[in-house]
Amino acid sequence: MIKGKAVIGILATSNYMVTNDTFQDTYRYGNNYAKKIVECGGIPYFIPLEDEKIIPDTLEICDGLLLPGGSRVRPVNFEIIDYFYKNNKPILGICLGMQTLAMYSVNIENDENLRIIKQIDNGVDHWPVELLRDNNDTVVHKDVIKKDTKLYDIFKQGEIVVNSVHKNTITEVGSKFRVSIESEDGLIEGIEYIDNDKFIIGVQFHPEILSQFKCVFDKFILECQK
Question: Which pTM value belongs to this model?
Answer without folding.
Answer: 0.89
